[in-house]
Amino acid sequence: MKRSLLSLLVLAATAHVGAQGVTDAMIADDAKSTNNVLSWGLGTQGQRHSPLTGINAKNINRLTPAWSMSFGGEKQRGQQSQPLVHNGKMFVTASYSRIFALDAKTGNKLWKYEHRLPEGIMPCCDVINRGAALYDNLVIFGTLDAQLVALDQDTGKVVWREKIDDYSAGYSYTAAPLIAEGLLLTGVSGGEFGVIGRVEARDPKTGKMVWTRPVVEGHMGYKDGKENGISGTTNASWPGETWKTGGAATWLGGTYDPKTGLAYFGTGNPGPWNSHVRKGDNLYSASTVAIEVKTGQIKWHYQNTPNDGWDYDGVNEFVTFDMDGKRVGAKADRNGFFYVNDAATGKLLNAFPFVKKVTWATGIDLKTGRPNFVDDNRPGDPTGAGGDGAKGKAVFSAPGFLGGKNQMPMAYSPKTGLFYVPTNEWGMEIWNEPITYKKGAAFLGAGFTIKPLFDDHIGSLRAIDPKTGKVAWEVKNSAPLWGGVLTAGDLVFWGTPEGFLKAADAKTGKVVWQFQTGSGIVAPPITWTEGGEQYLSVVSGWGGAVPLWGGEVAKKVNFLEQGGSVWTFKLMK
């Protein structure tokens, strides 16, 4: 009787462990594990590399669809979500603040949550969502009306819901949250509306705020409900009261490196775009900001574009890796330069252009870390010399404000030592206009039109050596590239707006496989194993900023069709 009771207790305990959910240890191991995808970036470091080699150049001709699932309805628009996979379930967000739970092997829908959005939301660049976070038995994602929602992974029922900020003031949320050291880290979207960028840490089980850290100089941080120090020094790099509507939205989310204990968030453009209104460096806009997760304090920052006058958000992901015995991080910035910084101190180690035409600076001074500005390429002051009070001198600048690289995440392969960067070659005519802040209104003070630079391509996937800046190979694309990249074994996977999911040899760039998904791909692929088989998934659905803001480029790609689906592949036996 005692043995039977003991056996039952052991079984019960084992069952409880099996149903434990996602732990901090699992998240820390995400980059190495192959049977789950628990983080945006396939690991908090953001390398987007999988050690899986089951799908390779020798057998990829047998890679075929296993299933496809449509998001359905009339709510198409851009689909930029990276799916997550755990315990046989896939969790994937969709446009208009929706999230689906699917059977990862079959694609069968298990449940759907559709957030009720109010009238008057103000998303800058389409009604997209880039993904969720997993913790314990919860799946957590953000909404276009600036809320966080935590759902039970098994049932889809709401466990907690917290407001990030006031959507009527221009705040929204589109990024995938980040789990680091047992905390849920999130940013804010809304840089075009004069919001204040910040990073927040919550208890992922309850949604309770732990700390908040503004990334515009002059604003107070808080920890456990108490003041935790002002960010920077008020008016040190912002004149007058311009810091009060400073922008610098942390709209792409962050990465985290356990070796440094730091979370890295890119910050967006300062507000307004008209840089003559806010003369100074405008910290911490257009920067990489490293935040100590335990304290909520800024450990270091590096500003990619001081006094940004071109909307060159510095929001792109900071990917950490080992190079020459150091822990470093790399960032392909919207401004056209690729940066390598010491991950612990922020010291600039290398910087070079990764697109063919950069007009706003001649280079980056490695000693000072500052750009060598081309003064004549800054849009003119409408109230100064050469301005007529209504419009300043127009200039043609490259890259265009949509960037040498935008939201589409790059990948790093430890096997090749190369970064695989989705790039775009375009420029813009841009001019400044007078502007005053009004709550909830666009806060630009600029006009613009985007133009392609070359006849044969706009997009190009480039394999780049972070030590030398040399491009090992590139695959050109007619339309802009707007989806992310995955490396798995010796292959690189990425999608195109024309609808193709492609694979190339990571060393040579030879395209070895492609599949037409029926709509443009503006999302990053993932891979994992289930039941001993390797699977590959990507979300398909054309949209995002290009058709909304792309000027002449938008006209060039207006033949592309919208959609909304998840495609999953495996090797045909």
UniProtKB/TrEMBL annotation:
Q: Where does pyrroloquinoline quinone bind?
A: R130, T174
The record's keywords, sorted A to Z, are:
Calcium, Disulfide bond, Metal-binding, Oxidoreductase, PQQ, Signal
Q: What CDD domains does the entry give?
A: PQQ_ADH_I (cd10277)
Q: Which PANTHER family match?
A: QUINOPROTEIN ALCOHOL DEHYDROGENASE (CYTOCHROME C) (PTHR32303), QUINOPROTEIN ETHANOL DEHYDROGENASE (PTHR32303:SF20)
The protein depicted here goes by the name PQQ-dependent dehydrogenase, methanol/ethanol family
| Cofactor(s) for this UniProt protein | Ca(2+); pyrroloquinoline quinone
The protein's superkingdom reads Bacteria
Q: Which InterPro entries match?
A: ADHI (IPR034119), PQQ_b-propeller_rpt (IPR018391), PQQ_MeOH/EtOH_DH (IPR017512), PQQ_rpt_dom (IPR002372), Quinoprotein_ADH-like_sf (IPR011047)
**UniProt similarity note:** Belongs to the bacterial PQQ dehydrogenase family.
Signal peptide interval: 1-19
Q: Which residues form the Pyrrolo-quinoline quinone repeat domain?
A: 40-349, 459-526
Which species is this UniProt entry from?
A: Hydrogenophaga crocea
> Which GO cellular component does the record give, naming just one?
membrane
- Region annotation Disordered: where it falls in the sequence: 372-391
- Disulfide cysteine pairs (residue numbers): C124-C125
Residues that hold Ca(2+) according to the record: E192, N269, D311
Q: What is its EC number?
A: 1.1.2.-
Q: How is the cofactor bound?
A: Binds 1 Ca(2+) ion per subunit. Binds 1 PQQ group per subunit.
